[in-house]
Design a protein that fits this description.
Blueprint lengths: L9 E5 L3 H12 L3 E6 L9 H12 L14 E5 L12 E4 L5 H11 L8 E4 L6 H5 L10 E6 L8 E6 L5 H14 L3 E4 L8 H18 L4 H7 L12 H7 L1 H14 L13 H8 L12 E4 L2 E6 L4 E4 L6 H6 L5 H10 L3 H24 L3 H12 L5 H22 L11 H7 L7 E2 L2 E4 L4 E3 L25 E5 L3 E5 L4 E6 L8 H17 L2 E4 L40 H19 L3 H5 L3 H20 L4 E10 L1 H8 L2 E11 L13 H11 L7 H12 L4 E2 L1 H7 L7 E3 L5 H14 L11 E2 L2 H17 L5 H14 L9 E2 L1 H16 L2 H13 L6
Helix pairs in contact: 1-2, 6-13, 6-14, 8-9, 12-13, 12-15, 13-15, 15-16, 17-20, 18-29, 20-21, 20-28, 22-23, 22-28, 23-27, 26-27, 27-28
Length: 840
Amino acid sequence: MRNQRFLVRKAAVLGAGVMGAQIAAHLVNANIETLLFELPGDTDNPNANVIKAVEKLKKQEPAPLSIKTKAACIQPANYDQHLERLKDCDLVIEAIAERVDWKRDLYIKVAPYLGEHTIFASNTSGLSINQLAEAFPEALRHRFCGIHFFNPPRYMHLVELIPCQNSDAAMLDHLEEFLVTDLGKGVIRAKDTPNFIANRIGVFSLLATMYHGRGFNFGFDLVDALTGSLIGRPKSATFRTADIVGLDTLAHVINTMRDTLPGDPWHRYFAVPDWLQGLIDKGALGEKVKRGVYQKIKNEIHVFDLPSQTYRVSAGEVDEELKRLLKYSTPAEKFAALRNSQQPQAQFLWSIFRDLFHYCAVQLEAIANNARDLDLAVRWGFGWNQGPFEIWQAAGWKQIATWIQEDIATGKSMSQAPLPQWVMTIAASDKQSVHTDQGSFAPDSGELQQRSTLPVYQRQLFPDRLVGEEAVYGQTIFETDAVRMWHSGDGIAILSFKSKMHTIGIDVLEGVQQAIKEAEKDWRALVIWQTEPPFSAGANLQKATERPKTDAQHGGRAPPQPPTAFQSFLKKFKKSAQSTVLQVARELDLADALMAKKLAEVEAMIKQFQQASQALRYSMIPTVAAVDGLALGGGCEFVMHCDRAVATLESYIGLVETGVGLLPAGGGCKEFAMRAAQNAKDGDPFPSLKYYFQTVAMAELAKGAEQAKDLGYLRLADTVVMHRFELLHVAKAQALALAEAGYRPPLRAREIPVAGNTGIATIKSQLVNLREGDFISEHDYLIASKVAHVMCGGDLTPGSLVDEDWFLELERAAFMELLATEKTQARIAHTLKTGKPLRN
């Protein structure tokens, strides 16, 4: 019997506030027809409130919409006129303010209009699902549950799925599968306890950090310096995260814990600090009003200073001694150093970790089904590299448990609650692990619990794994220091890079060409997929002929339409250059080659790069690029040359070489020239080519896979995958489909019409105007002119026919001419030294 799939043809979101509007945006990102409801407006247009919310979506950063044009797919609605339209919705998500009485009133109002099979869910961040369910007619409660998205919904991976007592089990399974594949989310089943899992643990961690920071008299900026990327958490750390969430929202969540958890051993800490309430009373609510714990004054970041009750310049500095302690090679050594040190910053870090571990251990049984769910909820909901139990296990379960017990006994811990017996049972075991390949510890049963067996998870060939779980990436076909080619017994060969950031050097190029030869002999298709993002940060020309030393161990965890007005060149050029130039310069590190005058070796590498790209295009077996994260420069060119690309929604793809004074030379300019020729009307490629030229000359970086299609980096036939851990499954399916269809490579293009000297002159006339108006520099003019020369096919009569090699030779020559200029060398050197672009 086939597994029944929950199909969402139409959805509705009730509430057009910050979360409701962004949930609606992500639903249309997934191509789901979506209604967005709000109270009728006071103007002549009853939908004015929704229209205003949708307009705001277009301006938000980071963008809630994958492309701005999808805003038109959100259908405005109001409760007075359009409730009848709910009957056609498969899923209705309530996302109004966190007031039980308001939510209950809304449920009573809309329940009569729900369709026979409509699933109704609340996006509450912590209210009781069972209490909310009481507002529904009893006959509908089996179709009610909680779906808690995290902000911002497009980017945060976690969705907590919370059943009420009457929720139908099959309904929950179908809904989970929809959330995973269609919306790309990591779903955690949470118990109906206050604030569920992620907020319960995350907010406690915030409170503990605030408490100990105050105890050590640390400023908010110093606390953030200590609790961000330094310890594997987002750069927003503690107080910047509070600003992003909203200080009023944070206060509401804290008060929910205070009011609903009277028996919690840490209850006395569940109080909004006076300083936080003071900021809220002054209207300093955080990022949404541009003032909270932090505010930007001119070009400086200022932080609220408790002693003076005013703002000062943010200047938190990590002590050098603490930096030294954190350089110990193993987690066990680091935690021992932190606990034994008398350095205040070290003592602070030990204190916040100790109390976090203690709280998680005591509360696990009440809030989560197993240790895996708690760790993944915190990682996916708050962006930590590892969850609390993962960190504890990596640092030595028994030793940490012993230290926690000692601190409880001496009154150093925030609570005197004893550690649960299961903690000591694991400490006494051989493995001392809550996470293993066999499963994760579940306190209800006292045993290891395996991952979900729902069919949707069979699509995740290598799911997000935890400390203690090993991933075995198939059987090796061949392996070098730079690449590994492997398979899983299904006839599809997979190539993974091993270089840092999966950059492309001589050794990777050789590996790609060897992999193609191997695949043509024995395999049905070749997929390029990395075990962790990014796909590739681009070419690495450092010491062009030297093979870099890389880690031989494989594996690990892991603008919509091009502008039509050329006068927008300057604004977009500067913006895109600033956002990409540093990354490009770091990964396209030419410093050694330039100093050694190894330009001939660089040119040889460029030629080999082009050969590898062409080999991907004309291989006798289908090639598929599976893209997740960055695909810059040469990485983008590989994507463009594969027969198909499968990309996650959050793939950031672009030919960005002009940001450091160069141009794409691995076949990227050639590809755009060919695509313009294919789109040519009456034999004139220029109308299409001018858009592609602007994309390359302005170093446009697509902020997502949908934008990559609009910019031309991806083709319309390429597939966008919502869930990154389903990427390999879909890429292999695409490769197999091509093979099953009797794949033959495309015929080599031998008669490509060029825009020629007329196209070059047209573009240069615009560039001259910008240069003479001091909008671009002389070197900007040279770079853009070189791009135009290559993409227009050189100084030929428009319509002249050339082959691919002609464009590749133009690419190489222009690249080397720019590389030889002092100003391009100065741009690269300046960016590597300062981290900022140079406009010379």
